[in-house]
TrEMBL record:
Name of the coding gene: mepM_2
MF (Gene Ontology): metalloendopeptidase activity
Keyword Repressor assigned: no
Gene3D superfamilies: Glucose Permease (Domain IIA), Resuscitation-promoting factor rpfb
Lineage: superkingdom: Bacteria
Keywords of this entry: Hydrolase, Signal
Protein known as: Murein DD-endopeptidase MepM
InterPro entries: Cell_wall_metabolism_enzyme, Dup_hybrid_motif, G5_dom, M23ase_b-sheet_dom
Domain G5, first and last residues per copy: 124-204
SMART domains named among the record's database cross-references: G5 (SM01208)
EC number: 3.4.24.-
Enzyme class: hydrolase
A Pfam family that the UniProt record links to this protein: G5
Length: 333
């Protein structure tokens, strides 16, 4: 009976630590990495069919094989070689199941090449690399708000800032060529950013009759004005529109009320500076909540026909110290 025995070398549970500790400074220690092997690399088993035997590959040859693996891996890697701080190669769980092992008749170079080539598909070893990388990052300008007494409420002037940039040095970890994390070790600002400054008017627009409000919906027809109507006071203006049309905040403020009230239907009240409030009524839907900080032009609801209303429209009020005034005098056209 002629039994063909294929002698193969198994790199059993090898763990090689090609690590070196950088002795300060920013320069790479790539030159030293491949010369520094700590611990006992164990290329120490032979596999004949399903049985494993000790091999005669000695520790020095094992070290050479694994060192070559590291060398080949670095050659194939897209990482800038000058940045490598350390490399660490370990067999993983999958390695134990790995059947296609290495022939003892191969040279050290050939064995190493097989390990690297076959690992591309099988991933039975994990190569952990740490690289010291330098990059430039943009510093976005901060936004600073300045209140201007000589500008009316609702007026905004923006002075655009400028981005700066910084140099960032990070220790980046790669496992099998994929970035798995990083630690920033140094940051140096090269050019400072310049703040964007937003000048915001705070002057009271009421007395000077300044149109400071944005039209609170889109299009529509004014169907009822502010003032006496059928013998009683109409505290706002009505804009006839289609159900579902957008309703916008007329100016920056904070939502104070947002609920259904008899008469008004679904109603939103927004509080603004200078004791001014705006009211939006008969809404179909709310698109904001109490406490929300809204900007001029933000969507807050939809036109509807809720409450005491004979057709879809927006009832819009402006109140100063709680007293309704004619909104039309303050809406920008
Ligand atoms: Zn009305």
């Amino acid at each position: 009976m002629n039994i063909s025995i294929k002698k193969t070398l198994m790199v059993s549970a090898f763990s090689i630590c090609l690590t070196t500790i950088l002795g300060g400074g920013l320069e790479s220690s790539y030159g030293n990495i491949l010369l520094t092997i700590e611990g006992e690399p164990t290329v120490s088993a032979m596999k004949v069919e399903d049985k494993t035997y000790k091999t005669d590959v000695d520790i020095d040859a094992s070290k050479e094989i694994l060192r070559k693996v590291g060398e080949l891996y670095i050659e194939d890697s897209v990482v800038n070689k000058d940045t490598i701080l350390s490399i660490d190669i370990k067999a993983n769980d999958k390695y134990e199941e790995y059947k296609n092992v290495i022939s003892t008749s191969d040279s050290i170079e050939e064995i190493a090449e097989k390990i690297v080539d076959e690992n591309n598909d099988e991933k039975y070893i994990d190569v952990n690399m740490k690289c010291k990388e330098t990059r430039q990052e943009t510093i976005e300008p901060s936004i600073k708000t300045v209140q201007k007494e000589d500008m009316y409420m609702g007026e905004i002037l923006k002075e655009e800032g400028m981005s700066g940039y910084k140099e960032v040095v990070a220790n980046v970890n790669y496992t099998n060529g994929i970035k798995t994390g990083e630690e920033i070790v140094q940051e140096k600002t090269i050019v400072n950013s310049k703040d964007t400054v937003v000048y915001k008017g705070v002057k009271d627009p009421i007395e000077d009759k300044v149109a400071f409000l944005e039209y609170p919906t889109e299009g529509g027809t004014i169907t009822s004005l502010f003032g006496k109507r059928w013998g009683r006071m109409h505290n706002g203006m009505d804009i006839g529109n289609d159900t579902g049309d957008p309703v916008y905040s007329a100016i920056d403020g904070v939502v104070k009320e947002c609920y259904y009230e008899n008469g008004y239907g679904n109603k939103i009240v927004i509080e603004h500076d200078n004791n001014i409030m705006t009211v939006y009524a008969h809404l179909n839907e709310f698109k904001t909540t109490v406490g929300a900080e809204v900007k001029k032009g933000d969507l807050i609801g939809n036109v509807g026909n809720t409450g005491n209303s004979t057709g879809p429209h927006l009832h819009f009020e402006v109140r100063v110290n709680g007293v309704p005034i004619n909104p039309q005098e303050y809406i920008q056209v």
